[in-house]
Design a protein that fits this description.
Helix content is about 35%, strand content about 25%. By secondary structure, it is of the alpha+beta class. The radius of gyration is 19 Å and the shape is globular.
Amino acid sequence: MHAVTSADHAIDRPLLDEIERYYDAVPRSAAHAEDFGPLTLFVRKGTTGWHYYARPALGHDGPAATAEDVRRVLERQRELGAPEAFEWVAERNPELRAAVEAAGLTVHEHPLLVLGPQDEPAPAPTLPDRVAVRVLAPDAPELAEAVAVPHLAFGDPGTAIGASGAAELAPRVEVLTAEGAVARIAQRIADGVTVQAAALDGGAVQCAGQYNPVGAVGEVVGVGTLPAARRRGLGLAVTAALVAHARANGVRTVFLSAADEAVARIYRRAGFRPFATALIAEPASPQA
């Protein structure tokens, strides 16, 4: 994959800084921050919910992170039983890659795309009359399916039509409901820190996704289509609904990270433009 660099286009440094402030702020609604000098480790509150990651410390003006700094964070993540994961933007902290690789982690590149304040989103795609795209309330009866569909989608990655459909969705809904995942999303919606949208065909969720607003910035995350329902424009429709809701509620900068260039092409059709490169570092092989 080709990383976006300043050789491709001039980086909008104020916008990059705005996104960096967002990345530091958004985990704090569900995690507390531990200080490791040039790095910050976000640790989830309680024993349930999402595990978080380490990032460059916002506003750090001392020496850049070293492999030893990374190893100290890794030790703490192992102590907590948390994933050994680091996330950052290549253009914002280019020096971190060498440190995490020296500590034995593998770095994965993902296109980071943006709809800035000056960018206009593309029109929403036209869908069949039976398909409705909705922003869901915390007590929406469709919420459990909307939480479960992306889990199936990411378990069968890519854009090709897959086998998983309604039969596989029902047991996943049961598991996520029992684990409290659906209740957590409902609470986040009620608290105003997550907005959930879904595409429904005959009342059944076929695609779903979210954005998480912090002030005038929001990140679109977790957009996934039931594998059996792919290639119908549903992911594009859900993304367009999230962007429209964000813009109508004061969010001027919307951004996202795509899994790969094939997925990024879908988001470019929604009006997003390539902006930078999101990097994720993790162990090369699953932990024992």
